[in-house]
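Data availability (excerpt). The following record was deposited with the supplementary files.
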Amino acid sequence: MAESLKDMRNYLVVTASYWAFTVTDGAIRMLVVLYFHSLGYSPLEIAFLFLFYEFFGVVTNLVGGWIGARVGLNLTMHAGMALQVMALLMLTVPDAWLSVPYVMAAQALSGIAKDLNKMSAKASVKLMLPEDAGSQLFRWVAILTGSKNSLKGAGFFVGAALLASTGFRNALYILAGGLFLVLVVTALLLPHELGKSKAKPKFTSIFSKSRPINWLSAARFFLFGSRDVWFVVGLPVFLSSVLDWTHTQVGGFLALWIIGYGLVQASAPRLLRRSHHAHGPDGGTARLWVMLLAVMPAGIAIALQQGLDPALSLVIGLALFGIVFAINSAVHSFLILDYSDSDRVAMNVGFYYMANAGGRLTGTVLSGLIYQTHGLTGCLWWSVAFILMAGLLSLALPTRPEISQSRSS
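Predicted structure:
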Protein backbone atom coordinates (compact mmCIF):
# COMPACT_ATOMS: atom_id res chain seq x y z
CA MET A 1 0.00 0.00 0.00
CA ALA A 2 2.78 2.44 0.93
CA GLU A 3 4.59 1.70 -2.33
CA SER A 4 1.46 2.24 -4.42
CA LEU A 5 0.78 5.55 -2.66
CA LYS A 6 4.35 6.62 -3.37
CA ASP A 7 3.94 5.70 -7.05
CA MET A 8 0.68 7.65 -7.22
CA ARG A 9 2.33 10.68 -5.63
CA ASN A 10 5.22 10.53 -8.11
CA TYR A 11 2.76 10.18 -10.99
CA LEU A 12 0.83 13.25 -9.82
CA VAL A 13 4.05 15.26 -9.46
CA VAL A 14 5.22 14.30 -12.97
CA THR A 15 1.78 15.05 -14.41
CA ALA A 16 1.58 18.45 -12.70
CA SER A 17 5.04 19.45 -13.94
CA TYR A 18 4.15 18.28 -17.45
CA TRP A 19 0.96 20.36 -17.29
CA ALA A 20 2.87 23.47 -16.25
CA PHE A 21 5.41 23.01 -19.02
CA THR A 22 2.70 22.39 -21.62
CA VAL A 23 0.86 25.62 -20.80
CA THR A 24 4.07 27.58 -21.39
CA ASP A 25 4.68 25.63 -24.63
CA GLY A 26 1.30 26.61 -26.04
CA ALA A 27 1.53 30.15 -24.70
CA ILE A 28 4.96 30.88 -26.15
CA ARG A 29 3.81 29.74 -29.61
CA MET A 30 0.82 32.08 -29.54
CA LEU A 31 2.92 34.93 -28.15
CA VAL A 32 5.49 34.58 -30.93
CA VAL A 33 2.91 34.34 -33.72
CA LEU A 34 0.83 37.32 -32.56
CA TYR A 35 3.65 39.60 -31.44
CA PHE A 36 5.89 39.09 -34.44
CA HIS A 37 2.92 39.52 -36.75
CA SER A 38 2.34 42.91 -35.08
CA LEU A 39 6.01 43.77 -35.71
CA GLY A 40 5.43 43.32 -39.45
CA TYR A 41 6.93 39.84 -39.94
CA SER A 42 5.56 38.05 -43.00
CA PRO A 43 3.75 34.69 -42.64
CA LEU A 44 6.76 32.95 -44.21
CA GLU A 45 9.15 34.58 -41.73
CA ILE A 46 6.90 33.57 -38.84
CA ALA A 47 6.83 30.00 -40.15
CA PHE A 48 10.64 29.96 -40.25
CA LEU A 49 10.72 30.95 -36.58
CA PHE A 50 9.39 27.47 -35.73
CA LEU A 51 11.55 25.48 -38.16
CA PHE A 52 14.30 24.76 -35.63
CA TYR A 53 11.67 24.01 -32.97
CA GLU A 54 10.51 21.01 -35.02
CA PHE A 55 13.95 20.00 -36.31
CA PHE A 56 15.56 19.87 -32.90
CA GLY A 57 12.66 17.78 -31.69
CA VAL A 58 13.94 14.99 -33.95
CA VAL A 59 17.51 15.35 -32.66
CA THR A 60 16.51 15.65 -29.00
CA ASN A 61 14.32 12.57 -29.06
CA LEU A 62 17.07 10.54 -30.70
CA VAL A 63 19.67 11.27 -28.01
CA GLY A 64 17.44 12.31 -25.10
CA GLY A 65 16.39 8.77 -24.21
CA TRP A 66 20.01 7.64 -24.12
CA ILE A 67 20.93 10.58 -21.87
CA GLY A 68 17.95 9.85 -19.62
CA ALA A 69 18.95 6.20 -19.28
CA ARG A 70 22.45 7.25 -18.20
CA VAL A 71 21.71 10.15 -15.86
CA GLY A 72 18.06 9.56 -14.88
CA LEU A 73 14.72 10.84 -16.17
CA ASN A 74 14.39 13.18 -13.21
CA LEU A 75 17.43 15.14 -14.42
CA THR A 76 16.39 15.27 -18.09
CA MET A 77 12.87 16.42 -17.19
CA HIS A 78 14.18 19.28 -15.08
CA ALA A 79 16.81 20.14 -17.68
CA GLY A 80 13.97 20.55 -20.16
CA MET A 81 12.11 22.87 -17.78
CA ALA A 82 15.27 24.94 -17.18
CA LEU A 83 15.86 25.27 -20.93
CA GLN A 84 12.28 26.45 -21.41
CA VAL A 85 12.81 29.15 -18.78
CA MET A 86 15.92 30.24 -20.69
CA ALA A 87 14.03 30.25 -24.01
CA LEU A 88 11.31 32.46 -22.52
CA LEU A 89 13.85 34.89 -21.06
CA MET A 90 15.77 35.06 -24.34
CA LEU A 91 12.75 36.72 -25.95
CA THR A 92 12.56 39.52 -23.36
CA VAL A 93 15.39 41.47 -25.07
CA PRO A 94 14.66 44.75 -26.92
CA ASP A 95 12.85 44.52 -30.26
CA ALA A 96 16.01 45.50 -32.15
CA TRP A 97 17.60 42.20 -31.06
CA LEU A 98 14.68 40.07 -32.20
CA SER A 99 15.97 39.10 -35.63
CA VAL A 100 14.77 35.92 -37.35
CA PRO A 101 18.00 33.97 -36.57
CA TYR A 102 17.87 35.04 -32.90
CA VAL A 103 14.25 33.99 -32.44
CA MET A 104 14.90 30.74 -34.33
CA ALA A 105 17.67 30.02 -31.81
CA ALA A 106 15.27 30.68 -28.91
CA GLN A 107 12.67 28.41 -30.51
CA ALA A 108 15.33 25.73 -31.03
CA LEU A 109 16.00 25.84 -27.29
CA SER A 110 12.26 25.60 -26.63
CA GLY A 111 11.99 22.61 -28.97
CA ILE A 112 14.80 20.81 -27.15
CA ALA A 113 13.15 21.62 -23.83
CA LYS A 114 9.75 20.35 -24.95
CA ASP A 115 10.99 16.98 -26.13
CA LEU A 116 13.27 16.41 -23.13
CA ASN A 117 10.30 17.08 -20.87
CA LYS A 118 7.86 14.96 -22.89
CA MET A 119 10.19 11.97 -23.20
CA SER A 120 11.02 12.08 -19.50
CA ALA A 121 7.43 12.42 -18.29
CA LYS A 122 6.04 9.61 -20.45
CA ALA A 123 8.90 7.19 -19.81
CA SER A 124 8.61 7.85 -16.06
CA VAL A 125 5.05 6.50 -16.00
CA LYS A 126 6.28 3.04 -17.04
CA LEU A 127 8.60 2.94 -14.03
CA MET A 128 5.85 3.72 -11.54
CA LEU A 129 3.84 0.57 -12.25
CA PRO A 130 4.52 -3.19 -12.20
CA GLU A 131 5.19 -4.94 -15.52
CA ASP A 132 1.76 -6.60 -15.66
CA ALA A 133 -0.34 -3.47 -14.94
CA GLY A 134 -1.43 -3.10 -18.58
CA SER A 135 -4.87 -1.60 -18.04
CA GLN A 136 -3.69 0.85 -15.38
CA LEU A 137 -0.72 1.84 -17.53
CA PHE A 138 -3.12 2.57 -20.41
CA ARG A 139 -5.24 4.81 -18.14
CA TRP A 140 -2.27 6.71 -16.70
CA VAL A 141 -0.63 7.29 -20.10
CA ALA A 142 -3.93 8.35 -21.68
CA ILE A 143 -4.64 10.85 -18.89
CA LEU A 144 -1.10 12.27 -19.02
CA THR A 145 -1.06 12.59 -22.81
CA GLY A 146 -4.65 13.73 -23.24
CA SER A 147 -4.49 16.37 -20.53
CA LYS A 148 -1.24 17.64 -22.05
CA ASN A 149 -2.87 18.22 -25.42
CA SER A 150 -5.88 19.96 -23.87
CA LEU A 151 -3.60 22.21 -21.84
CA LYS A 152 -1.53 23.08 -24.91
CA GLY A 153 -4.72 24.36 -26.49
CA ALA A 154 -5.47 26.23 -23.26
CA GLY A 155 -1.94 27.64 -23.47
CA PHE A 156 -2.90 29.36 -26.72
CA PHE A 157 -5.58 31.27 -24.81
CA VAL A 158 -3.19 31.98 -21.91
CA GLY A 159 -0.57 33.41 -24.26
CA ALA A 160 -3.08 35.63 -26.07
CA ALA A 161 -4.65 36.80 -22.78
CA LEU A 162 -1.29 37.64 -21.20
CA LEU A 163 -0.18 39.48 -24.34
CA ALA A 164 -3.36 41.59 -24.32
CA SER A 165 -3.33 42.28 -20.56
CA THR A 166 0.35 42.58 -19.62
CA GLY A 167 2.31 42.99 -22.86
CA PHE A 168 4.84 40.72 -24.56
CA ARG A 169 7.75 40.92 -22.13
CA ASN A 170 5.72 40.84 -18.92
CA ALA A 171 3.90 37.78 -20.27
CA LEU A 172 7.26 36.06 -20.80
CA TYR A 173 8.43 36.97 -17.28
CA ILE A 174 5.20 35.57 -15.77
CA LEU A 175 5.51 32.29 -17.68
CA ALA A 176 9.22 31.91 -16.91
CA GLY A 177 8.70 32.66 -13.20
CA GLY A 178 5.81 30.22 -12.85
CA LEU A 179 7.69 27.41 -14.60
CA PHE A 180 10.82 28.00 -12.52
CA LEU A 181 8.76 27.67 -9.34
CA VAL A 182 7.33 24.35 -10.56
CA LEU A 183 10.87 23.18 -11.41
CA VAL A 184 12.06 23.83 -7.86
CA VAL A 185 9.09 22.04 -6.28
CA THR A 186 9.30 18.93 -8.49
CA ALA A 187 13.08 18.73 -8.07
CA LEU A 188 12.51 18.43 -4.32
CA LEU A 189 9.69 15.87 -4.57
CA LEU A 190 10.85 13.36 -7.21
CA PRO A 191 13.37 10.55 -6.53
CA HIS A 192 16.74 11.39 -8.05
CA GLU A 193 17.41 7.91 -9.47
CA LEU A 194 14.14 7.75 -11.45
CA GLY A 195 14.70 6.14 -14.86
CA LYS A 196 18.45 5.63 -14.57
CA SER A 197 19.51 2.40 -16.28
CA LYS A 198 21.28 -0.23 -14.18
CA ALA A 199 23.93 -0.55 -16.89
CA LYS A 200 25.34 2.47 -18.73
CA PRO A 201 24.02 2.02 -22.30
CA LYS A 202 26.31 2.72 -25.24
CA PHE A 203 25.38 5.46 -27.70
CA THR A 204 24.87 2.88 -30.47
CA SER A 205 22.02 1.37 -28.43
CA ILE A 206 19.74 4.36 -29.14
CA PHE A 207 18.51 2.62 -32.29
CA SER A 208 15.97 0.10 -31.06
CA LYS A 209 16.62 -3.57 -31.81
CA SER A 210 13.04 -4.60 -30.95
CA ARG A 211 10.96 -5.41 -34.04
CA PRO A 212 7.64 -4.26 -32.50
CA ILE A 213 9.16 -0.94 -31.44
CA ASN A 214 10.71 -0.38 -34.87
CA TRP A 215 7.40 -1.10 -36.63
CA LEU A 216 5.44 1.01 -34.16
CA SER A 217 7.85 3.94 -34.58
CA ALA A 218 7.56 3.74 -38.37
CA ALA A 219 3.75 3.69 -38.10
CA ARG A 220 3.91 6.68 -35.73
CA PHE A 221 5.95 8.64 -38.31
CA PHE A 222 3.19 8.31 -40.91
CA LEU A 223 0.36 8.73 -38.40
CA PHE A 224 1.53 12.17 -37.30
CA GLY A 225 2.62 13.09 -40.80
CA SER A 226 -0.96 12.38 -41.90
CA ARG A 227 -2.28 14.98 -39.47
CA ASP A 228 0.22 17.75 -40.06
CA VAL A 229 0.24 17.40 -43.86
CA TRP A 230 -3.12 19.21 -43.89
CA PHE A 231 -3.58 20.60 -40.38
CA VAL A 232 -0.49 22.80 -39.95
CA VAL A 233 -0.49 25.03 -43.04
CA GLY A 234 -3.21 23.93 -45.47
CA LEU A 235 -6.17 24.09 -43.06
CA PRO A 236 -5.52 27.49 -41.40
CA VAL A 237 -4.63 29.11 -44.75
CA PHE A 238 -7.80 27.68 -46.32
CA LEU A 239 -9.97 28.88 -43.44
CA SER A 240 -8.44 32.34 -43.64
CA SER A 241 -8.08 32.91 -47.39
CA VAL A 242 -10.97 30.86 -48.83
CA LEU A 243 -13.59 30.97 -46.07
CA ASP A 244 -12.58 34.50 -44.92
CA TRP A 245 -12.33 33.56 -41.25
CA THR A 246 -10.55 36.11 -39.05
CA HIS A 247 -7.28 35.25 -37.33
CA THR A 248 -9.14 35.10 -34.02
CA GLN A 249 -11.69 32.66 -35.45
CA VAL A 250 -8.98 30.45 -36.95
CA GLY A 251 -6.85 30.45 -33.80
CA GLY A 252 -9.83 29.88 -31.51
CA PHE A 253 -11.18 27.04 -33.65
CA LEU A 254 -7.83 25.24 -33.77
CA ALA A 255 -7.29 25.76 -30.03
CA LEU A 256 -10.72 24.29 -29.26
CA TRP A 257 -9.95 21.35 -31.56
CA ILE A 258 -6.73 20.63 -29.68
CA ILE A 259 -8.52 20.83 -26.32
CA GLY A 260 -11.25 18.46 -27.52
CA TYR A 261 -8.65 16.15 -29.01
CA GLY A 262 -6.88 15.97 -25.66
CA LEU A 263 -10.11 15.23 -23.79
CA VAL A 264 -10.89 12.32 -26.12
CA GLN A 265 -7.34 11.03 -25.75
CA ALA A 266 -7.64 11.07 -21.96
CA SER A 267 -10.95 9.20 -22.26
CA ALA A 268 -9.58 6.51 -24.61
CA PRO A 269 -9.36 3.77 -21.93
CA ARG A 270 -13.08 4.17 -21.18
CA LEU A 271 -13.98 4.30 -24.87
CA LEU A 272 -12.01 1.10 -25.51
CA ARG A 273 -12.99 -0.67 -22.28
CA ARG A 274 -14.55 -3.64 -24.06
CA SER A 275 -11.58 -4.27 -26.33
CA HIS A 276 -8.59 -3.73 -24.03
CA HIS A 277 -9.95 -5.61 -20.97
CA ALA A 278 -7.35 -5.88 -18.20
CA HIS A 279 -4.23 -5.87 -20.35
CA GLY A 280 -4.52 -2.83 -22.59
CA PRO A 281 -4.78 -2.62 -26.39
CA ASP A 282 -2.50 -4.48 -28.83
CA GLY A 283 -1.46 -4.43 -32.46
CA GLY A 284 -4.92 -5.46 -33.58
CA THR A 285 -6.40 -2.39 -31.88
CA ALA A 286 -3.87 -0.15 -33.61
CA ARG A 287 -4.67 -1.64 -37.04
CA LEU A 288 -8.43 -1.26 -36.61
CA TRP A 289 -8.37 2.38 -35.57
CA VAL A 290 -5.77 3.55 -38.08
CA MET A 291 -7.76 2.09 -40.99
CA LEU A 292 -10.91 3.78 -39.67
CA LEU A 293 -8.98 7.06 -39.57
CA ALA A 294 -8.38 6.97 -43.33
CA VAL A 295 -12.12 7.41 -43.93
CA MET A 296 -12.11 10.91 -42.38
CA PRO A 297 -9.76 12.91 -44.65
CA ALA A 298 -11.04 10.96 -47.66
CA GLY A 299 -14.62 11.96 -46.78
CA ILE A 300 -13.65 15.64 -46.35
CA ALA A 301 -11.77 15.65 -49.68
CA ILE A 302 -14.72 14.09 -51.52
CA ALA A 303 -17.14 16.58 -49.92
CA LEU A 304 -14.99 19.52 -51.05
CA GLN A 305 -14.60 18.08 -54.56
CA GLN A 306 -18.38 17.59 -54.82
CA GLY A 307 -19.00 21.24 -53.94
CA LEU A 308 -20.65 20.66 -50.57
CA ASP A 309 -20.56 23.46 -47.97
CA PRO A 310 -16.80 23.70 -47.23
CA ALA A 311 -17.18 25.19 -43.73
CA LEU A 312 -19.66 22.52 -42.63
CA SER A 313 -17.64 19.74 -44.26
CA LEU A 314 -14.46 20.84 -42.49
CA VAL A 315 -16.02 21.40 -39.05
CA ILE A 316 -17.79 18.02 -39.03
CA GLY A 317 -14.91 16.19 -40.72
CA LEU A 318 -12.28 17.69 -38.45
CA ALA A 319 -14.32 16.79 -35.35
CA LEU A 320 -14.58 13.15 -36.46
CA PHE A 321 -10.91 13.09 -37.49
CA GLY A 322 -9.92 14.46 -34.07
CA ILE A 323 -11.87 11.77 -32.20
CA VAL A 324 -10.42 8.86 -34.16
CA PHE A 325 -6.91 10.36 -34.33
CA ALA A 326 -6.91 10.88 -30.54
CA ILE A 327 -7.73 7.20 -29.95
CA ASN A 328 -5.00 6.17 -32.41
CA SER A 329 -2.47 8.34 -30.59
CA ALA A 330 -3.51 7.02 -27.16
CA VAL A 331 -3.15 3.40 -28.33
CA HIS A 332 0.33 4.11 -29.76
CA SER A 333 1.43 5.92 -26.58
CA PHE A 334 0.43 2.87 -24.53
CA LEU A 335 2.06 0.35 -26.88
CA ILE A 336 5.50 1.98 -26.81
CA LEU A 337 5.56 1.59 -23.01
CA ASP A 338 4.00 -1.87 -23.11
CA TYR A 339 6.64 -3.09 -25.59
CA SER A 340 9.52 -1.67 -23.48
CA ASP A 341 11.22 -3.25 -20.49
CA SER A 342 11.94 -0.91 -17.59
CA ASP A 343 15.69 -0.73 -18.20
CA ARG A 344 15.36 0.45 -21.80
CA VAL A 345 12.16 2.48 -21.56
CA ALA A 346 13.85 5.90 -21.79
CA MET A 347 15.77 4.99 -24.97
CA ASN A 348 12.77 3.30 -26.57
CA VAL A 349 10.49 6.25 -25.85
CA GLY A 350 13.11 8.66 -27.18
CA PHE A 351 13.51 6.63 -30.38
CA TYR A 352 9.74 6.45 -30.82
CA TYR A 353 9.23 10.18 -30.34
CA MET A 354 12.06 10.86 -32.76
CA ALA A 355 9.86 9.16 -35.37
CA ASN A 356 6.90 11.22 -34.14
CA ALA A 357 8.86 14.47 -34.52
CA GLY A 358 10.14 13.36 -37.94
CA GLY A 359 6.58 12.77 -39.09
CA ARG A 360 5.50 16.19 -37.84
CA LEU A 361 8.43 17.89 -39.56
CA THR A 362 7.77 16.07 -42.84
CA GLY A 363 4.05 16.79 -42.65
CA THR A 364 4.66 20.47 -41.91
CA VAL A 365 6.96 20.91 -44.93
CA LEU A 366 4.67 18.94 -47.24
CA SER A 367 1.61 20.84 -46.00
CA GLY A 368 2.90 24.13 -47.39
CA LEU A 369 4.27 22.59 -50.57
CA ILE A 370 1.18 20.52 -51.45
CA TYR A 371 -1.28 23.28 -50.55
CA GLN A 372 0.57 25.64 -52.87
CA THR A 373 0.40 23.17 -55.78
CA HIS A 374 -2.80 21.16 -55.22
CA GLY A 375 -4.82 23.01 -52.57
CA LEU A 376 -6.44 21.59 -49.45
CA THR A 377 -7.93 18.57 -51.25
CA GLY A 378 -4.42 17.59 -52.35
CA CYS A 379 -3.25 17.81 -48.72
CA LEU A 380 -6.17 15.62 -47.65
CA TRP A 381 -5.43 12.89 -50.20
CA TRP A 382 -1.80 12.89 -49.08
CA SER A 383 -3.12 12.47 -45.54
CA VAL A 384 -5.06 9.40 -46.68
CA ALA A 385 -1.90 7.96 -48.26
CA PHE A 386 0.09 8.51 -45.05
CA ILE A 387 -2.64 6.84 -42.96
CA LEU A 388 -2.73 3.82 -45.26
CA MET A 389 1.06 3.52 -44.95
CA ALA A 390 0.71 3.64 -41.14
CA GLY A 391 -1.89 0.88 -41.40
CA LEU A 392 0.37 -1.23 -43.60
CA LEU A 393 3.24 -0.90 -41.11
CA SER A 394 0.86 -1.75 -38.24
CA LEU A 395 0.29 -5.21 -39.73
CA ALA A 396 3.58 -6.24 -38.13
CA LEU A 397 2.52 -5.22 -34.60
CA PRO A 398 1.94 -8.22 -32.29
CA THR A 399 -1.42 -9.14 -30.79
CA ARG A 400 -1.88 -9.65 -27.04
CA PRO A 401 -1.29 -13.47 -27.16
CA GLU A 402 1.93 -12.87 -29.15
CA ILE A 403 3.11 -10.30 -26.61
CA SER A 404 2.40 -12.66 -23.72
CA GLN A 405 4.20 -15.52 -25.46
CA SER A 406 7.31 -13.42 -26.13
CA ARG A 407 7.48 -12.34 -22.47
CA SER A 408 7.15 -15.87 -21.15
CA SER A 409 9.80 -17.28 -23.50
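Summary of structural features: The chain has a mean pLDDT of 83.
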